[in-house]
Design the sequence.
């Protein structure tokens, strides 16, 4: 096979180079992600919309960019991404009610634009309000469709592994020209 | 290296970069635009009750009913990078227990192509105006504002508050209607 022919023709030095190159790609991706976490203050600065509860603003597969600066107050009308105890997947919904105490303690209620009722049914049983600690980030930027790739990969794990394997093989085996 | 695969690859890569450049252009040309327009809000009736908050907390809380008119022309906000406006009427006020309260009373989605002129008469609120306690009774300063969240085709998601808000006093007793 021609693919491995490239590999066989490489000497040791070139082989190391290829491996280092691959490691470089992986670590820069990781660095960019961790760097974004530091800059935005959000534990997950880019999220993919997974449900249609914010339609027609956001559809499944749209990409959201989040920030979560502590000094930034949460206000009605904002779109927040939050986690509810007992649910793994964060939810993207709009704030419709805010009550803030003098010491800065804040409680708020959310609702999906496309839902008929507020989110109290989604919260933990007996929970009426969200607090600052539940927030993963506030939606600041929007990019359509790009997250579709992630959704396809999550829905078809075999496809994901195939893509990863092919890309890895290309980087490792293809000789730099 | 002129195989079908390599040609398809470079075609794909090129169209991807063209799309990325166009998307970025769409974002940067509209990112710094002012999206404030004048809004005219008028409240014709206010009613106050004190009932158990059946929407969740189950405590006796003040529940306000507001009848309002809104006039606004949102046409200037729209451009090539506006997919939708999420407009909402919110009440903002301070109480003894909370320094800031915001309650969304009514909202509406205006898609590109919908009629951007708002002319609402004798509207009732869409959501219950429950306070977090009993802070509506006799409250002299309940401010109503109309704001919108601009949802772009690609770009930032600004929150804008329309110029022109009104402050209304609430009645001192329950079950009374105030007309303005």
Sequence:
């Amino acid at each position: 096979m021609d693919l491995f022919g490239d590999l066989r023709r490489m000497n040791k030095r070139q082989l190391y180079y290829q491996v280092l190159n691959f490691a470089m790609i992986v670590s820069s991706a990781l660095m960019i992600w961790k760097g974004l976490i530091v800059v935005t203050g959000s534990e997950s600065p880019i999220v993919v919309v997974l449900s249609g509860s914010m339609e027609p603003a956001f559809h499944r597969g749209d990409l959201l960019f989040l920030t979560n600066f502590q000094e930034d107050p949460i206000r009605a009308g904002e779109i927040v991404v939050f986690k509810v105890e007992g649910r793994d997947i964060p939810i993207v919904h709009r704030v419709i009610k805010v009550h803030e105490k003098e010491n800065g303690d804040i409680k708020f209620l959310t609702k999906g634009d496309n839902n008929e009722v507020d989110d109290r049914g989604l919260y933990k049983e007996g929970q009426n309000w969200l607090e600052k600690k539940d927030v993963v980030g506030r939606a600041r930027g929007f990019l359509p469709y790009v997250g579709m790739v992630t959704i396809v990969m999550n829905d078809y794990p075999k496809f994901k592994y195939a893509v990863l394997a092919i890309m890895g093989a290309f980087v490792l085996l293809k000789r730099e020209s | 290296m002129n195989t079908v695969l390599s040609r398809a690859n470079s075609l794909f890569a090129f169209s991807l970069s063209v799309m990325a450049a166009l998307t970025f252009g769409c974002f940067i040309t509209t990112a710094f635009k002012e999206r404030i327009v004048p809004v005219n809000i008028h409240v014709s009736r206010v009613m106050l009750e004190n009932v158990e908050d059946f929407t969740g907390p189950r405590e006796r809380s003040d529940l306000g009913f507001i009848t309002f008119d809104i006039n606004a022309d949102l046409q200037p906000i729209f451009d090539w990078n506006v997919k939708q406006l999420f407009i909402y009427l919110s009440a903002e006020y301070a109480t003894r227990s909370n320094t800031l309260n915001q309650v969304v009373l009514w909202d509406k989605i205006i898609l590109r192509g919908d009629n951007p002129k708002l002319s609402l008469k004798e509207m009732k609120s869409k959501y219950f105006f429950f306070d977090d306690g009993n802070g509506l009774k006799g409250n002299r300063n309940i401010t109503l504002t109309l704001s919108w969240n601009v949802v772009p085709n690609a770009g930032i998601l600004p929150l804008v508050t329309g110029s022109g808000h009104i402050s209304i006093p609430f009645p001192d007793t329950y079950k009374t209607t105030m007309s303005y």
Chain B has a mean pLDDT of 93.
